[in-house]
Amino acid sequence: MGSPSSHLFLFLFFLSLSGISGCSNYGLDVVKVDDNFFMLPGEGGNSSVVIGDSVILVVDTKMKQGAERFHRWVEDRAKNKRIVIVNTHIHKDHTGGNHYYENVEIIAGDYGTQFWLANNSREDMPNRWLSDTIVVDLGNEKAVIENVGQAHTFDDVIVYLENRKVVCAGDIVLNGYHPYLDETVGSNVDDYIVAMDHITDKYDVKNVVPGHGDLGTAQVIKNFRQYFVDMKAASEDIDQTDAMRKKYGKYLNLPVNKAGFDQTIKFIRSNASLRN
Ligand SMILES: [Zn+2]
Ligand SMILES: [Zn+2]
Predict the structure, then answer these.
(1) Which residues of 46-59 are buried (b: 16+ CB within 10 A; e: fewer)?
(2) Ligand 1 centroid from CA 211, angstroms
(3) Ligand that comes closest to the CA of residue 157
(4) What is the pLDDT of residues 214-235, one digit of tens each?
(5) Residue 91: nearest ligand to its CA?
(6) Which of 24, 73, 115, 274 is the most buried (most CB within 10 A)?
(7) How far does the centroid of ligand 1 lie from the alpha carbon of residue 25, in Å?
(8) 127-131 contacts: CB < 8 A, separation 24 or more?
(9) What is the pTM for the complete model shown?
């Protein structure tokens, strides 16, 4: 038998281990935006989780070990609620955890089976191709899920949370990162700008969950739109190239070696020469 104070110590010790909510974060970074809305950065792309009255909405499922831990994190909070998953796009850093969710609706842009299998795995293939817009009623929130067409890939999907005025933009919008531009899955610089304009015209955006980088305000979209405008200018004019290399000197490259200042310039130049 220990003293009452040692009991208290043990109680506090276990409380701190389990976390205040009684759920573990499994070593994941968790940004609690409010009681029912979480943003989990990294381990692949950023993920968003909205805990509705009877449905829990998950945007992007991360990759590798992070995806497995994220799945446990979601299941702990889902309890008996139905899980709905949205993939913002086909890249593995946003879809690598899909196979952990059994008997769950997994929604992605309308790539179709053949294109999916040419660019991703069968085990992570979604079971619903979205070509337009659907609204999922979460009870305490309404989620507008829209295929905004071609930008980062051929069929990018965004999620807009009506009550919170938050857009989960996937890799159409990055915060402080150079984009990974890949023509084979449909990356197109002009279409990025069109897609961003569409988002800001159609939705009243207060906050943005970018595909990579910190959660921010609508200014994050403005900044990333300006990035493409600047890089287009830089691709045509050597003076601009030096100025923009300085301006975007702090931007990060993900994935390393496949994205960066020079890669963006090269991509825009080869796109332009294809059109001429
Ligand atoms: Zn990504
Ligand atoms: Zn991507």
Answers:
(1) bbbbbbbeebbbbb
(2) 6
(3) 2
(4) 999 999 999 999 999 999 999 9
(5) 2
(6) 73
(7) 22
(8) 130/155, 130/157, 131/155
(9) 0.91
